[in-house]
Design a protein that fits this description.
It is built from three helices and three strands; from the N terminus they run H-E-H-E-E-H. With 107 residues, it is α+β, with helices and mostly antiparallel strands. The protein has two domains: 65 residues; 38 residues, no CATH class. The chain has a three-stranded antiparallel β-sheet with strand order 1-3-2, with helices on one face. A hairpin with a 2-residue loop joins strand 2 and strand 3.
Length: 107
Amino acid sequence: MPQDTKTTKLMSKLKKIKNDNESLQRVYFWEEESTQLAQLVNSNQPLPAGVYRDEKGFYKASASDTSEQAAREYLMLQQLETIKNCVVFFVALVVVSMVITLLVLVS
């Protein structure tokens, strides 16, 4: 997979996480622009890329701090989560094998 595609997917995930946590600033469109976007929605056409809709109206998410460093930070957190899951798996595996060994030795 090319690096640009990985970076794009990573940045999309990061924007979604920040948007879910409301750390992205929402910039709402003016009434005239909102009317045009509403006409698009009413005619069953897709919204332009990067335009979203909520109960207040149409907006663009301002991602001023989603930089290369933020993408690396997200990737590092994902890797740490993976490492943690592996450690938990192997600890559980060791505990289960110890219990089985103990049961075999006792009987």
